[in-house]
Design brief:
This protein is α/β, with parallel strands linked by helices. It has a domain of 155 residues: Rossmann fold (3-Layer(aba) Sandwich), CATH 3.40.50. Helices cover 36% and strands 22% of the residues. It contains eight helices and ten strands. The chain has a six-stranded mixed sheet with strand order 6-7-8-3-9-10, sandwiched between helices. A four-stranded antiparallel sheet has the order 2-1-4-5. A hairpin with a 5-residue loop joins strand 1 and strand 2. Helix 3 packs across helix 4 and helix 3 runs parallel beside helix 5. The longest helix is centred in the C-terminal third of the chain and has 25 residues. It is globular and about 60 Å long. It binds adenosine-5'-diphosphate and magnesium ion (MG). Adenosine-5'-diphosphate binds next to helix 1.
Amino acid sequence: MLPAKSSLSLAYPPPVPEPATAGTAAAPVVEVLSAEKTYDKGTRALLPVDLRIRQGEFVTLLGPSGCGKSTLLKMVAGLLEPTDGRILLWRQPVQQATATAGKMAFVFQSPTLMPWASVQTNVRLPLDLAGVPRAEADARVADALALVGLTRFHEALPRALSGGMQMRVSIARALATDPDLLLMDEPFGALDEITRHKLDADLLELQRRKNLTVVFVTHSIHEAVFLSNRVVVMAARPGRVVETVPIAEPYPRSLDFTTSTEFAQYARHLQHSLLRASVDTEEALS
Ligand code: ADP
Ligand code: MG
């Protein structure tokens, strides 16, 4: 007999309809308009970038270390100012947009949990900071923990959890704020490959269910192809966008996709694009 599928087994999610907003008519959530960044010491972290991301899209920034992925993501989050150019969220300047037009959450590479506080207290933190009444906050924390499959661990301390579970707590903390836009900077980069693939599948299921707009940073080709509607390929020295590759594969995507011919073709295309860009860089520097 086959083992029963656990509720955590989201690698083979049930079919969900395409969100109505995923078509070409969907409103832009993120508009990067010739935004570039030169740091104080003169490092050209990013040449001008143009990028538009629609409601419900999953867009990945893929590239080697130092190509400006974090710089671009932080500029979208309003944590860094572009040296030139503009960034709009929901058609408004970033600071203004997050105050009025929509909610954005940022997930960092390390889970950054308070070690002395329980899982539920950690997830409640942004709600406490925003002054959400306790009863409502508790309900939202419970929902977020259920979404990431950690209900049973609400009273645990972070150190009692595995790295993958700590990352889920960090994602629950972002989801508890009910974001429309989720920015994730190599969220699973520190995890082993098997855990990462599992969390990738869970994240994709969540994104589809909540019709989230996601900008995801990784240097894993596998992750980029599996997750994305579009992959923005970047190169370093100077940091720049070299190509945007649509992954024209329907959702939901199961692990079967990762062993398909199409998957291998997309992966090869991205690999060549990354290699070509690094050769161009070496030639330019020589
Ligand atoms: P990635 O996330 O793709 O690894 P980053 O955006 O972190 O790339 O960095 C892009 C470039 O900008 C790198 O050369 C990096 O050393 C440089 N850089 C990043 N942050 C700063 C900073 N605060 N001050 C100066 N240079 C920086
Ligand atoms: Mg980075």
